[in-house]
Amino acid sequence: MAHTLCLLRHARPLIESGVCYGHLDVSAEVNANAQDAQTILDRMSARGVTPDMIYTSDLQRARQLTDAIHSHFLQTPLIADPRLREMNFGCWEGHAWNDIPKAEYDSWIENFPDYQFGGMESCQQVLTRVIDFYRDMRATLEVNTQATQHSQQILCVTHAGVMRALRYYLETGNETISSASQWPATVAGFGCSETYMLE
User: Fold this and answer.
1) 92-137 pLDDT, tens per residue?
2) Does the keyword Ubl conjugation apply (predicted)?
3) Which CATH number fits domain 3-198: 2.30.30.140, 3.40.50.300, 2.60.40.2470, 3.40.50.1240?
4) Smallest Cα–Cα separation from 142: which of 47, 52, 74, 78?
């Protein structure tokens, strides 16, 4: 039985362009959030889609989009999971990317899996927590499938780094990463989604 997993990136955040933010809990632009929510709701309506489960990062820029969507599906279970947060950039949170020393970027690229850019979290740690979330989500999915006997529609509202990590895992099956060249280079824009069919 095939299930649908839709990964939706939060709306454009209310922060100056070029600033590093990951765990930094910034809000989304109000108008962008409303517009993105309406767009995704219109698409779901056109396809006759009602989510069976909604997961979200607990950071407010994700919760704002989630809440706008969930208000139309109040019977759908909603779970806020910190494992869906963006990567923690530690001491560089809130700093302009251009102000971060080149040596910091070089160290990150040279030891991409394990270097904690900003001193808090490595890409491997992000990948591991995202895989942990995915496995728990799949376990819940199996229970729901047995109970309902129909395909499930899962919506996750999250961040670019999480979307890259999950894409890497789903496309390769690898639980570890060894170099920056393996990390997906592109990701959906603000308020846009990526969809996967799960067997």
Assistant:
1) 999 999 999 999 999 999 999 999 999 999 999 999 999 999 999 9
2) no
3) 3.40.50.1240
4) 52
φ, ψ of residue 192 in degrees (nearest 5):
-110, 165
Spatial distance between the Cα atoms of 46 and 122, rounded to a whole number of angstroms: 40
Closest alpha carbon to 23 in 64, 58, 54, 56? 58
**Which of 37, 75, 73 has its CA nearest to residue 192?**
37
Cα 6 to Cα 35, 66, 101, 171, distances in angstroms? 18, 13, 36, 15
**How far apart are the C-alpha atoms of 39 and 69, rounded to whole Å?**
10
Reported as a single tens digit per residue, the pLDDT across 60-81 is: 999 999 999 999 999 999 999 9
| pTM more than 0.90 | yes
